[in-house]
User: Fold these one by one.
Assistant:
Number 1:
Amino acid sequence: MALYNEKVMDHFRNPRNVGALEDANGVGESGNAVCGDIMKVYLKIEDGIVKDVGFETFGCGSAIASSSMATELIKGKPVEEALELSNKAVVEALEGLPLRKVHCSILAEEAIKAALEDYYRKQGLPIPQKILDYKPAVEEDH
Ligand code: FES
Protein backbone atom coordinates (compact mmCIF):
# COMPACT_ATOMS: atom_id res chain seq x y z
CA MET A 1 0.00 0.00 0.00
CA ALA A 2 1.25 3.47 -0.80
CA LEU A 3 2.36 5.51 2.19
CA TYR A 4 0.36 8.56 1.12
CA ASN A 5 -3.19 8.49 -0.16
CA GLU A 6 -4.34 10.12 -3.39
CA LYS A 7 -5.76 13.18 -1.66
CA VAL A 8 -2.48 13.94 0.11
CA MET A 9 -0.55 13.41 -3.13
CA ASP A 10 -2.96 15.71 -4.99
CA HIS A 11 -2.51 18.55 -2.47
CA PHE A 12 1.26 17.97 -2.46
CA ARG A 13 1.54 18.01 -6.25
CA ASN A 14 -1.02 20.77 -6.86
CA PRO A 15 -1.04 22.81 -3.68
CA ARG A 16 -3.85 25.39 -3.45
CA ASN A 17 -3.32 28.96 -2.24
CA VAL A 18 0.47 29.03 -2.64
CA GLY A 19 2.22 32.34 -2.20
CA ALA A 20 2.30 35.49 -0.14
CA LEU A 21 -0.64 37.93 -0.19
CA GLU A 22 0.51 41.49 -0.60
CA ASP A 23 -2.59 42.92 1.04
CA ALA A 24 -2.75 40.45 3.93
CA ASN A 25 -3.94 41.91 7.22
CA GLY A 26 -2.89 38.90 9.27
CA VAL A 27 0.42 37.07 8.88
CA GLY A 28 1.67 34.25 11.03
CA GLU A 29 4.51 31.80 11.06
CA SER A 30 5.16 28.51 12.71
CA GLY A 31 8.12 26.20 12.78
CA ASN A 32 9.05 22.81 14.06
CA ALA A 33 12.34 22.82 15.94
CA VAL A 34 12.91 19.12 15.35
CA CYS A 35 12.56 18.89 11.57
CA GLY A 36 13.27 22.56 10.87
CA ASP A 37 10.21 23.00 8.65
CA ILE A 38 8.60 26.43 8.50
CA MET A 39 5.17 27.58 7.40
CA LYS A 40 3.93 31.12 6.86
CA VAL A 41 0.25 31.97 6.44
CA TYR A 42 -1.22 35.17 4.99
CA LEU A 43 -4.83 36.14 5.65
CA LYS A 44 -6.94 38.80 4.03
CA ILE A 45 -9.90 39.31 6.33
CA GLU A 46 -12.79 41.57 5.44
CA ASP A 47 -16.09 41.98 7.28
CA GLY A 48 -15.19 39.06 9.53
CA ILE A 49 -14.68 36.71 6.59
CA VAL A 50 -11.43 35.13 5.41
CA LYS A 51 -11.64 36.55 1.90
CA ASP A 52 -8.28 35.22 0.79
CA VAL A 53 -5.48 33.13 2.17
CA GLY A 54 -2.00 32.22 1.00
CA PHE A 55 0.89 30.22 2.34
CA GLU A 56 4.61 29.67 1.94
CA THR A 57 5.93 26.43 3.32
CA PHE A 58 9.52 25.37 3.50
CA GLY A 59 8.90 21.83 4.48
CA CYS A 60 8.11 18.23 3.71
CA GLY A 61 5.39 16.98 1.38
CA SER A 62 2.96 16.42 4.24
CA ALA A 63 3.51 19.99 5.45
CA ILE A 64 2.76 21.29 1.95
CA ALA A 65 -0.36 19.10 1.62
CA SER A 66 -1.47 20.17 5.11
CA SER A 67 -0.95 23.86 4.30
CA SER A 68 -2.91 23.49 1.10
CA MET A 69 -5.81 21.70 2.78
CA ALA A 70 -5.83 23.94 5.86
CA THR A 71 -6.01 27.09 3.72
CA GLU A 72 -8.82 25.56 1.65
CA LEU A 73 -10.75 24.77 4.82
CA ILE A 74 -10.72 28.37 6.07
CA LYS A 75 -11.07 30.23 2.78
CA GLY A 76 -14.37 32.08 2.58
CA LYS A 77 -15.23 31.16 6.17
CA PRO A 78 -16.01 33.47 9.10
CA VAL A 79 -13.00 34.24 11.31
CA GLU A 80 -14.67 32.36 14.18
CA GLU A 81 -14.66 29.20 12.08
CA ALA A 82 -11.02 29.69 11.10
CA LEU A 83 -10.24 29.95 14.80
CA GLU A 84 -11.73 26.52 15.35
CA LEU A 85 -9.62 24.79 12.72
CA SER A 86 -7.69 21.94 14.27
CA ASN A 87 -4.91 19.81 12.87
CA LYS A 88 -7.28 16.87 13.34
CA ALA A 89 -9.73 18.44 10.89
CA VAL A 90 -6.88 18.93 8.41
CA VAL A 91 -5.83 15.28 8.71
CA GLU A 92 -9.45 14.16 8.32
CA ALA A 93 -9.93 16.32 5.25
CA LEU A 94 -6.76 14.80 3.81
CA GLU A 95 -8.26 11.38 4.57
CA GLY A 96 -5.34 10.55 6.80
CA LEU A 97 -1.61 11.06 7.19
CA PRO A 98 0.91 8.48 8.35
CA LEU A 99 1.28 8.69 12.13
CA ARG A 100 4.82 10.00 11.86
CA LYS A 101 3.57 12.84 9.69
CA VAL A 102 0.71 14.08 11.84
CA HIS A 103 2.98 16.74 13.33
CA CYS A 104 3.19 18.35 9.88
CA SER A 105 -0.53 19.18 10.14
CA ILE A 106 0.08 20.82 13.53
CA LEU A 107 2.34 23.31 11.77
CA ALA A 108 -0.63 24.43 9.63
CA GLU A 109 -2.93 24.89 12.61
CA GLU A 110 -0.26 26.85 14.47
CA ALA A 111 0.52 29.13 11.55
CA ILE A 112 -3.17 29.93 11.03
CA LYS A 113 -3.63 30.67 14.74
CA ALA A 114 -0.56 32.95 14.61
CA ALA A 115 -1.93 34.78 11.56
CA LEU A 116 -5.29 35.26 13.27
CA GLU A 117 -3.57 36.59 16.37
CA ASP A 118 -1.68 39.06 14.18
CA TYR A 119 -4.98 40.12 12.60
CA TYR A 120 -6.65 40.78 15.97
CA ARG A 121 -3.61 42.71 17.19
CA LYS A 122 -3.45 44.89 14.09
CA GLN A 123 -7.17 45.63 14.36
CA GLY A 124 -6.73 46.59 18.00
CA LEU A 125 -9.25 43.91 18.94
CA PRO A 126 -9.00 41.71 22.02
CA ILE A 127 -7.23 38.43 21.31
CA PRO A 128 -9.83 35.63 21.54
CA GLN A 129 -9.48 33.28 24.48
CA LYS A 130 -9.20 30.41 22.02
CA ILE A 131 -5.84 31.82 20.87
CA LEU A 132 -4.62 32.76 24.33
CA ASP A 133 -5.36 29.23 25.56
CA TYR A 134 -3.91 27.55 22.50
CA LYS A 135 -1.29 24.95 23.10
CA PRO A 136 -0.19 22.97 20.07
CA ALA A 137 -0.90 19.26 20.26
CA VAL A 138 2.05 17.39 21.71
CA GLU A 139 4.05 15.38 19.27
CA GLU A 140 4.93 12.07 20.71
CA ASP A 141 6.12 10.45 17.59
CA HIS A 142 8.29 12.50 15.35
FE1 FES B 1 8.53 18.59 9.51
FE2 FES B 1 6.75 17.45 7.98
S1 FES B 1 8.67 16.63 8.58
S2 FES B 1 6.64 19.38 8.93
Number 2:
Amino acid sequence: MSVALFALGGTISVAGRARGERLTGAEIIAAVPGLDRLGPALDVRDVHAVPSGSLTFAQVLDVVDEASRAVEAGAVGVVVTQGTDTLEETAFLADLVWRHEAPFVLTGAMRQPAMAGADGPANVLAAVSVAASGAARGLGALVAFNDELHAARWVRKSHSTSTAAFVSAGAGPVGHVVEGRVRVLAAPPRRAPLPGAPDRARLAAARVGLHCVSLDDDGGLLEDVADTHTGLVVAGFGAGHVPGPLAPVLGALARRIPVVLTSRTGSGPVLRHTYRAPGSETDLQERGLINGGLLDPYKARVLLRLLLANGAGRDEVTAAFAAHG
Ligand code: GLU
Protein backbone atom coordinates (compact mmCIF):
# COMPACT_ATOMS: atom_id res chain seq x y z
CA MET A 1 0.00 0.00 0.00
CA SER A 2 1.42 3.40 -0.96
CA VAL A 3 0.47 7.05 -0.70
CA ALA A 4 1.85 9.59 -3.19
CA LEU A 5 3.07 12.76 -1.47
CA PHE A 6 3.69 15.94 -3.45
CA ALA A 7 5.74 18.69 -1.77
CA LEU A 8 4.97 22.19 -3.02
CA GLY A 9 6.78 24.42 -0.53
CA GLY A 10 5.12 26.73 2.01
CA THR A 11 5.76 27.28 5.72
CA ILE A 12 6.03 23.53 6.31
CA SER A 13 9.17 23.58 4.13
CA VAL A 14 10.88 26.70 5.49
CA ALA A 15 14.30 25.46 6.59
CA GLY A 16 15.84 28.45 8.27
CA ARG A 17 16.21 32.17 8.24
CA ALA A 18 18.30 32.29 5.07
CA ARG A 19 16.24 33.41 2.10
CA GLY A 20 15.07 30.52 -0.06
CA GLU A 21 16.22 27.64 2.18
CA ARG A 22 13.64 24.84 1.98
CA LEU A 23 13.22 21.30 3.26
CA THR A 24 12.60 18.61 0.66
CA GLY A 25 9.59 16.32 0.92
CA ALA A 26 11.86 13.58 2.28
CA GLU A 27 13.13 15.94 5.00
CA ILE A 28 9.58 16.98 5.87
CA ILE A 29 8.45 13.38 6.39
CA ALA A 30 11.66 12.43 8.23
CA ALA A 31 10.58 14.81 11.01
CA VAL A 32 7.17 13.16 11.54
CA PRO A 33 7.13 10.89 14.61
CA GLY A 34 5.13 7.70 14.08
CA LEU A 35 4.83 7.99 10.32
CA ASP A 36 6.81 4.80 9.76
CA ARG A 37 4.36 2.86 11.97
CA LEU A 38 1.32 4.07 10.04
CA GLY A 39 1.51 1.50 7.28
CA PRO A 40 1.61 2.97 3.79
CA ALA A 41 4.88 3.48 1.98
CA LEU A 42 5.32 7.07 0.90
CA ASP A 43 6.19 7.90 -2.69
CA VAL A 44 7.53 11.45 -2.21
CA ARG A 45 7.86 13.92 -5.08
CA ASP A 46 9.32 17.41 -4.84
CA VAL A 47 7.35 19.46 -7.31
CA HIS A 48 7.66 23.10 -6.28
CA ALA A 49 9.36 24.88 -3.38
CA VAL A 50 7.49 28.17 -3.27
CA PRO A 51 5.22 30.25 -1.03
CA SER A 52 1.67 29.17 -1.92
CA GLY A 53 0.80 32.67 -3.09
CA SER A 54 3.11 32.02 -6.04
CA LEU A 55 1.39 28.81 -7.19
CA THR A 56 -0.57 28.94 -10.43
CA PHE A 57 -3.71 27.13 -11.61
CA ALA A 58 -1.61 25.33 -14.24
CA GLN A 59 0.87 24.07 -11.63
CA VAL A 60 -1.91 22.77 -9.41
CA LEU A 61 -3.63 21.08 -12.35
CA ASP A 62 -0.31 19.48 -13.30
CA VAL A 63 -0.05 18.07 -9.76
CA VAL A 64 -3.59 16.71 -10.05
CA ASP A 65 -2.65 15.03 -13.35
CA GLU A 66 0.45 13.47 -11.79
CA ALA A 67 -1.57 12.40 -8.76
CA SER A 68 -4.10 10.76 -11.09
CA ARG A 69 -1.32 8.77 -12.69
CA ALA A 70 -0.03 7.74 -9.24
CA VAL A 71 -3.50 6.48 -8.25
CA GLU A 72 -3.91 4.66 -11.56
CA ALA A 73 -0.55 3.01 -10.83
CA GLY A 74 -1.81 1.78 -7.44
CA ALA A 75 -1.48 4.55 -4.82
CA VAL A 76 -4.39 4.41 -2.35
CA GLY A 77 -4.39 8.15 -1.79
CA VAL A 78 -2.59 11.44 -2.31
CA VAL A 79 -1.11 14.03 0.07
CA VAL A 80 -0.09 17.51 -0.99
CA THR A 81 1.99 19.68 1.34
CA GLN A 82 1.95 23.38 0.51
CA GLY A 83 1.69 26.86 1.96
CA THR A 84 -1.50 27.71 3.77
CA ASP A 85 -2.21 31.08 2.17
CA THR A 86 -3.99 29.68 -0.89
CA LEU A 87 -4.83 26.21 0.43
CA GLU A 88 -8.56 26.97 0.36
CA GLU A 89 -8.33 27.76 -3.35
CA THR A 90 -6.00 24.96 -4.46
CA ALA A 91 -8.10 22.42 -2.52
CA PHE A 92 -11.27 23.50 -4.36
CA LEU A 93 -9.45 23.58 -7.70
CA ALA A 94 -8.29 19.99 -7.18
CA ASP A 95 -11.74 18.95 -5.96
CA LEU A 96 -13.40 20.26 -9.12
CA VAL A 97 -11.29 18.03 -11.38
CA TRP A 98 -10.46 15.02 -9.16
CA ARG A 99 -12.23 11.99 -10.60
CA HIS A 100 -10.97 9.20 -8.33
CA GLU A 101 -12.36 7.56 -5.21
CA ALA A 102 -8.91 7.81 -3.63
CA PRO A 103 -8.65 10.71 -1.16
CA PHE A 104 -6.76 13.83 -2.31
CA VAL A 105 -5.59 15.39 0.95
CA LEU A 106 -3.94 18.79 1.32
CA THR A 107 -2.10 20.07 4.35
CA GLY A 108 0.61 22.46 5.50
CA ALA A 109 1.75 24.25 8.61
CA MET A 110 1.22 27.57 10.35
CA ARG A 111 4.53 27.37 12.23
CA GLN A 112 7.89 26.81 10.60
CA PRO A 113 9.68 23.50 11.38
CA ALA A 114 12.25 25.14 13.68
CA MET A 115 9.65 27.02 15.75
CA ALA A 116 8.40 25.85 19.14
CA GLY A 117 5.24 23.82 18.67
CA ALA A 118 5.71 23.36 14.94
CA ASP A 119 2.45 21.90 13.60
CA GLY A 120 3.70 20.50 10.28
CA PRO A 121 4.58 17.00 11.55
CA ALA A 122 1.17 16.45 13.19
CA ASN A 123 -0.59 17.74 10.09
CA VAL A 124 1.40 15.44 7.79
CA LEU A 125 0.71 12.46 10.07
CA ALA A 126 -3.02 13.20 9.98
CA ALA A 127 -3.00 13.81 6.22
CA VAL A 128 -1.28 10.49 5.48
CA SER A 129 -3.74 8.71 7.81
CA VAL A 130 -6.61 10.24 5.86
CA ALA A 131 -5.08 9.46 2.45
CA ALA A 132 -4.72 5.81 3.45
CA SER A 133 -8.13 5.56 5.08
CA GLY A 134 -11.07 3.77 3.53
CA ALA A 135 -13.32 6.18 5.44
CA ALA A 136 -12.20 9.12 3.30
CA ARG A 137 -12.68 7.43 -0.06
CA GLY A 138 -15.10 9.14 -2.40
CA LEU A 139 -14.98 12.48 -0.58
CA GLY A 140 -12.83 14.27 -3.19
CA ALA A 141 -10.28 16.81 -2.01
CA LEU A 142 -9.98 17.31 1.73
CA VAL A 143 -7.88 19.57 3.95
CA ALA A 144 -6.38 17.83 7.00
CA PHE A 145 -5.28 20.40 9.56
CA ASN A 146 -5.11 20.57 13.34
CA ASP A 147 -6.55 17.03 13.48
CA GLU A 148 -9.66 18.19 11.64
CA LEU A 149 -10.84 17.24 8.20
CA HIS A 150 -12.44 19.88 5.99
CA ALA A 151 -14.27 19.58 2.67
CA ALA A 152 -12.62 21.55 -0.12
CA ARG A 153 -15.80 23.44 -0.97
CA TRP A 154 -16.21 24.86 2.55
CA VAL A 155 -12.73 25.26 3.99
CA ARG A 156 -11.36 28.74 4.67
CA LYS A 157 -8.18 30.10 6.20
CA SER A 158 -9.70 32.25 8.91
CA HIS A 159 -6.68 33.37 10.93
CA SER A 160 -3.27 34.67 9.88
CA THR A 161 -1.19 32.83 12.52
CA SER A 162 -3.27 30.38 14.59
CA THR A 163 -2.62 26.66 14.22
CA ALA A 164 -6.43 26.34 14.17
CA ALA A 165 -6.64 28.66 11.16
CA PHE A 166 -8.73 26.34 9.00
CA VAL A 167 -12.50 26.30 9.49
CA SER A 168 -15.58 25.42 7.51
CA ALA A 169 -17.89 28.26 8.49
CA GLY A 170 -21.56 27.38 8.38
CA ALA A 171 -20.78 23.70 7.88
CA GLY A 172 -18.13 22.53 10.35
CA PRO A 173 -15.39 19.98 9.73
CA VAL A 174 -16.45 16.80 7.95
CA GLY A 175 -14.44 14.68 10.34
CA HIS A 176 -11.38 14.41 12.52
CA VAL A 177 -8.34 12.27 13.23
CA VAL A 178 -7.94 11.07 16.81
CA GLU A 179 -5.38 8.50 18.01
CA GLY A 180 -4.63 7.87 14.35
CA ARG A 181 -8.23 6.92 13.58
CA VAL A 182 -9.99 8.81 10.82
CA ARG A 183 -13.65 9.46 11.54
CA VAL A 184 -15.92 11.06 8.98
CA LEU A 185 -18.90 12.66 10.70
CA ALA A 186 -20.73 14.30 7.81
CA ALA A 187 -19.69 15.04 4.27
CA PRO A 188 -21.31 17.23 1.62
CA PRO A 189 -22.69 15.43 -1.43
CA ARG A 190 -19.95 15.04 -4.03
CA ARG A 191 -20.59 17.07 -7.20
CA ALA A 192 -19.62 15.56 -10.54
CA PRO A 193 -16.12 16.68 -11.54
CA LEU A 194 -15.91 19.19 -14.38
CA PRO A 195 -15.55 17.56 -17.79
CA GLY A 196 -12.16 17.28 -19.41
CA ALA A 197 -8.69 18.51 -18.48
CA PRO A 198 -8.65 22.25 -19.20
CA ASP A 199 -6.48 23.21 -22.13
CA ARG A 200 -3.54 25.22 -20.74
CA ALA A 201 -3.67 27.92 -23.45
CA ARG A 202 -7.37 28.50 -22.79
CA LEU A 203 -6.62 28.51 -19.07
CA ALA A 204 -4.07 31.28 -19.58
CA ALA A 205 -6.62 33.25 -21.62
CA ALA A 206 -9.34 32.82 -18.98
CA ARG A 207 -8.70 35.86 -16.81
CA VAL A 208 -11.16 36.21 -13.94
CA GLY A 209 -11.15 39.28 -11.72
CA LEU A 210 -12.44 39.52 -8.17
CA HIS A 211 -13.92 42.76 -6.88
CA CYS A 212 -14.81 43.19 -3.22
CA VAL A 213 -17.49 45.84 -2.82
CA SER A 214 -17.12 48.38 -0.01
CA LEU A 215 -19.01 51.32 1.45
CA ASP A 216 -19.58 54.12 -1.08
CA ASP A 217 -17.86 52.06 -3.80
CA ASP A 218 -18.15 54.02 -7.05
CA GLY A 219 -17.00 51.16 -9.28
CA GLY A 220 -14.05 53.14 -10.65
CA LEU A 221 -11.82 50.06 -10.52
CA LEU A 222 -14.24 48.16 -12.75
CA GLU A 223 -14.40 50.56 -15.68
CA ASP A 224 -12.23 48.64 -18.15
CA VAL A 225 -12.46 45.20 -16.65
CA ALA A 226 -14.39 43.67 -19.59
CA ASP A 227 -11.55 44.76 -21.92
CA THR A 228 -8.93 42.94 -19.88
CA HIS A 229 -10.81 40.03 -18.29
CA THR A 230 -13.10 37.26 -19.49
CA GLY A 231 -15.06 36.94 -16.24
CA LEU A 232 -15.65 38.71 -12.94
CA VAL A 233 -16.64 37.66 -9.43
CA VAL A 234 -18.23 40.30 -7.22
CA ALA A 235 -17.99 39.90 -3.45
CA GLY A 236 -21.07 41.85 -2.44
CA PHE A 237 -22.37 42.99 0.92
CA GLY A 238 -24.42 40.58 3.05
CA ALA A 239 -26.74 38.40 1.01
CA GLY A 240 -25.46 39.73 -2.32
CA HIS A 241 -25.94 43.50 -2.41
CA VAL A 242 -23.97 46.44 -3.82
CA PRO A 243 -24.40 50.23 -3.66
CA GLY A 244 -27.31 51.27 -5.93
CA PRO A 245 -25.11 53.32 -8.33
CA LEU A 246 -22.90 50.27 -8.90
CA ALA A 247 -25.79 48.12 -10.17
CA PRO A 248 -25.88 49.58 -13.74
CA VAL A 249 -22.07 49.36 -13.95
CA LEU A 250 -22.22 45.66 -13.10
CA GLY A 251 -25.21 45.15 -15.41
CA ALA A 252 -23.25 46.64 -18.32
CA LEU A 253 -20.33 44.33 -17.54
CA ALA A 254 -22.65 41.31 -17.33
CA ARG A 255 -23.73 41.97 -20.93
CA ARG A 256 -20.12 41.46 -22.02
CA ILE A 257 -18.62 38.86 -19.63
CA PRO A 258 -20.02 36.45 -17.01
CA VAL A 259 -20.32 38.26 -13.67
CA VAL A 260 -20.90 36.05 -10.62
CA LEU A 261 -22.43 37.49 -7.45
CA THR A 262 -21.13 36.21 -4.08
CA SER A 263 -21.10 37.42 -0.48
CA ARG A 264 -18.10 39.03 1.18
CA THR A 265 -19.32 37.86 4.62
CA GLY A 266 -17.48 34.53 4.68
CA SER A 267 -20.49 32.25 5.04
CA GLY A 268 -24.12 31.92 4.04
CA PRO A 269 -25.84 32.10 0.67
CA VAL A 270 -26.51 34.85 -1.83
CA LEU A 271 -30.28 35.33 -1.74
CA ARG A 272 -32.42 35.05 -4.89
CA HIS A 273 -35.71 36.89 -4.34
CA THR A 274 -35.93 38.68 -0.99
CA TYR A 275 -34.81 42.30 -1.61
CA ARG A 276 -35.75 44.55 -4.53
CA ALA A 277 -33.88 47.86 -4.03
CA PRO A 278 -31.37 49.01 -6.67
CA GLY A 279 -28.22 47.00 -6.00
CA SER A 280 -30.15 44.17 -4.32
CA GLU A 281 -29.76 40.51 -5.30
CA THR A 282 -33.01 40.61 -7.30
CA ASP A 283 -31.98 43.76 -9.16
CA LEU A 284 -28.51 42.40 -9.92
CA GLN A 285 -29.83 39.06 -11.18
CA GLU A 286 -32.31 40.92 -13.44
CA ARG A 287 -29.32 42.81 -14.81
CA GLY A 288 -27.66 39.51 -15.73
CA LEU A 289 -25.44 38.67 -12.76
CA ILE A 290 -25.15 34.96 -11.99
CA ASN A 291 -25.96 33.83 -8.46
CA GLY A 292 -22.89 32.22 -6.80
CA GLY A 293 -25.03 30.38 -4.23
CA LEU A 294 -23.05 29.22 -1.21
CA LEU A 295 -19.62 29.52 -2.79
CA ASP A 296 -17.40 32.20 -1.28
CA PRO A 297 -15.75 34.71 -3.64
CA TYR A 298 -12.42 32.85 -3.83
CA LYS A 299 -14.00 29.51 -4.62
CA ALA A 300 -16.42 31.09 -7.10
CA ARG A 301 -13.43 32.59 -8.91
CA VAL A 302 -11.78 29.15 -9.13
CA LEU A 303 -14.95 27.60 -10.59
CA LEU A 304 -15.54 30.45 -13.05
CA ARG A 305 -11.97 30.36 -14.33
CA LEU A 306 -12.08 26.59 -14.87
CA LEU A 307 -15.42 26.86 -16.66
CA LEU A 308 -14.14 29.58 -18.97
CA ALA A 309 -10.96 27.58 -19.59
CA ASN A 310 -13.21 24.69 -20.63
CA GLY A 311 -14.97 26.96 -23.13
CA ALA A 312 -18.21 27.27 -21.18
CA GLY A 313 -20.70 29.83 -22.42
CA ARG A 314 -23.06 31.89 -20.29
CA ASP A 315 -25.73 29.16 -19.99
CA GLU A 316 -23.16 26.55 -18.95
CA VAL A 317 -21.68 28.94 -16.38
CA THR A 318 -25.16 29.58 -14.95
CA ALA A 319 -25.89 25.84 -14.84
CA ALA A 320 -22.56 25.06 -13.19
CA PHE A 321 -23.12 27.64 -10.44
CA ALA A 322 -26.62 26.23 -9.92
CA ALA A 323 -25.02 22.80 -9.42
CA HIS A 324 -21.90 23.75 -7.43
CA GLY A 325 -23.02 26.96 -5.71
N1 GLU B 1 2.29 31.12 4.50
C1 GLU B 1 3.05 31.16 3.28
C2 GLU B 1 2.37 30.29 2.22
O1 GLU B 1 1.19 30.17 2.17
C3 GLU B 1 4.44 30.69 3.50
C4 GLU B 1 5.43 31.50 2.82
C5 GLU B 1 6.68 30.72 2.45
O2 GLU B 1 6.59 29.51 2.27
O3 GLU B 1 7.72 31.36 2.29
O4 GLU B 1 3.01 29.72 1.41
